[in-house]
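Hi W.,

Here's what went into the run:
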Amino acid sequence: MSESGSLAPRRATAEMVARRANVSRVAVSRAFNPHTSLKPEKRALILKVAQELNYTPDRAARALVSGRSHLVGVIVPDVCSHWESQEIDALTTALQDEGFATLLFKTRTDYSMDERLLAYMRGFNPDSVIAFVENVKPTTLARVLDRAVPIYIHYARPGEEAPPPVDGPLFDRLNVLQRTGVEQAVALLQGYGVERIAYVSGVAKSRANLAREAMLREVLADRGMAPPIVGPGDFSYDKAYAATIDLFRIGKGVDAIFAANDVGAFGAIDALRHELGLRVPEDVKVIGFDDIAQSHWKSYNLTTVKFDLNERVRALVRLILRRLADPTAPSLQETLQTSLVVRGTVG
Amino acid sequence: MSESGSLAPRRATAEMVARRANVSRVAVSRAFNPHTSLKPEKRALILKVAQELNYTPDRAARALVSGRSHLVGVIVPDVCSHWESQEIDALTTALQDEGFATLLFKTRTDYSMDERLLAYMRGFNPDSVIAFVENVKPTTLARVLDRAVPIYIHYARPGEEAPPPVDGPLFDRLNVLQRTGVEQAVALLQGYGVERIAYVSGVAKSRANLAREAMLREVLADRGMAPPIVGPGDFSYDKAYAATIDLFRIGKGVDAIFAANDVGAFGAIDALRHELGLRVPEDVKVIGFDDIAQSHWKSYNLTTVKFDLNERVRALVRLILRRLADPTAPSLQETLQTSLVVRGTVG
DNA sequence: GTAAACAATGAACACGTTTTCATTTTCCGT
DNA sequence: ACGGAAAATGAAAACGTGTTCATTGTTTAC
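Here's what came out:
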């Protein structure tokens, strides 16, 4: 009781460990950094004492001198939207294995918030930043985050199979090629004699959405099919639900729906079945984008264009590590393919 | 070109801002800390220059001296499980408004990982830690995180309406009282003449699951109903799907299912409809726990025991702020009620 | 057996901020 | 105009670590 010095027990410091192990403070620092030279038995002793004292190096202090915070900022519009949450989950695990931690930031729908958010985030000094958000340009990101090089997820438009060069402020890029998956999907639909395809969109100005719609248009044109009728959505279940109803109120003889994402496809399916009294896939076929975990649920059992989540996360982590190994390297790139997963909503 | 000093442009520092604004470095620090005394026009000038130089204070350096990292650690088993992702989303937004950032950590299924994970997390020096994970005791958490006081989410068992006292290492607590919601649910079922209730469980040893099952048992006993038949699940769709099928293979005349969470209820509903050829709610009624966003989707339209997410997040943020205002205060408590949301799976 | 290479070591410095503390300036009431 | 209180200010100390550099102890090669 009386021996405990102050009320709030200070956290153990390298100094205390050094004193207790009869070594210098520098030795303690070295014990925790693998690539330094230190007598093995000495290192073992220090680590043992450290554990007794419940000591680990303070990352704030470490960041201050080494310039590495080991924090990776992730900017999302909605953590709880399905694809994002699954990607954050996998990314957090992978980063943790490499000694990093995920720092989460949410954008407002209010666009004006963004500059302030970026400045706010920069204060935490992340080593890298990944933006899942559509309304912030990578060059803006790079300009504001003067130390971290941001990673931009680029959904290739038609004809962009060879990714365009990066100019202006430096950023790295994950290029997502959607052509293969869309081609497989359209081929499958055409094989079933589909003639009139509708596209239930995502957020109108979103690059992922624009790229998907453009790619769909091109593939349809290449195969001599009519361009899609567009139902305006925003990647959400509710908007897709409403958009689908509107599509059939107009009555243009749509016999297949391409949704901008899986959740939108769920909304379309439920509207078809529960509101319009149509059968899926007999009356109308439905295809989504993403292949989220829910897509195999029996109520939907969705045929969808798949992004390999694990491969995507590995590519992101590779980008981060390569960038940290060489902070001045020119823009780094990784590329990802897509493919179709066939389930029960086409057939 | 030749005027830029080094290759990698150093990030702006308080020193540079001070020099450029013709003030002392201390003044710059004060300009960014609201509660300090500084001539208004001087503060304005400094902030203007800071913006020109793209400067914000380095939080690592700030944390080092102030002892506040403005980081809140969140430990989750699965970011992508629905309730967790929605809570993380709301929490991140709320914390951001208060000047904090969310630091995400994932546990392994492997239990032995946890001690290492906690030590790992402590290195980042979070101001507070919230554990959504079931297999780590709050006292362990408190012992390892010698500075931050962890927040523990306690699901009250029957008879725990007055929360039990905290002993041992200090931790704060959010008490979730589930009695009201379960009572409303059972009353509703009984009103429809239900006689044989099954409980599709969550992870067996999880405290949320144990509390829910115990509460259900007590309420059923109080109303003179038979105890529930238990189908073993793990909070996942797939396990609940399989457990539901097994329940009806045995054929004990179950006419209502209580699932440990909404996703489990979805699995039960799909098994009933698509595998067993039963109607919901005509043949079997289903009730879940959580009220996640998907519960109103037409395919499920689930009646469920609701946790008010926003209120829950506000309570968590209150706990964090109160604890930071008084780090030595005795264990803080907040309490949350539940209630039933009636939709289409009972009727 | 010697020189040279190499591993191990600790003192001093650097990182960018906030926080005392003592000093100077401004403000207010009379 | 004056005294005192309050606000404004800057120098110096602290926070806990990694890194550089010069020094000492130890092995290797001929």
